Prior knowledge:
Elements: E1 3-7, H1 12-23, E2 27-34, H2 41-53, E3 57-62, H3 97-112, E4 116-118, H4 134-146, H5 149-152, E5 158-160, H6 168-177, H7 202-214
Parallel strand pairs: 1-2, 1-4, 2-3, 4-5
Amino acid sequence: MPEVVVLLSGGLDSYTAAAILKNDGYRLNALSVRYGQRHVRELDAARGVAAALGVQRHLELSVDLSRIGGSALTSNIDVPKDRAIDDRIPVTYVPARNTVLLSLALAWAEALGITDIGIGANARDYSGYPDCRPEYMQAFEAMANLATKAGVEGARFLIHAPLMQMGKAEIIRRGLSLGLDYSLTHSCYDPLENGQPCGRCDSCVLRAKGFAEAGVEDPIGRS
């Protein structure tokens, strides 16, 4: 059975992407990263999601991007609420986050002798992040094959982003068709003190829109 290293944040998208890859016949190796995010509760969700998926390995790493700053998710900047989501890159963008995370996934994959890497990136219902676009994934894949011993010796790394062209409602319907339990997930950028979603940040708004359009109730309620 082929294996894949998949980035697993504990959010709805990464859970669904991992489940699709599992359904496609891959054995899952999950990587979750504590990168200084204010919504660190997602790592607890990632553990629950990993268990539900029956991953072969679950590696957690720490890379403190809060020391770099530049984002409402990693520094003392207010997370925007109730904004009109458009094509402008929001302050919740974390500088080079997907490049950092995919590089860690690439390193682990190469060490394990795996050439497939999965990510839940989406270019339709998202907040305008430049590192969620298909051309970025293609560029990273090309770099992976140039910058690694395995690539130079003839291996071919592939980046799998099965949600790339899906809308949020389509993602949710696909996950439900695979039997996913979305009550395990956490999406909110700025959760309340009790851990509940704020219901007003971009991530909460997009999640709510997706469930509404899918015609099903969000099992975690407010978001």
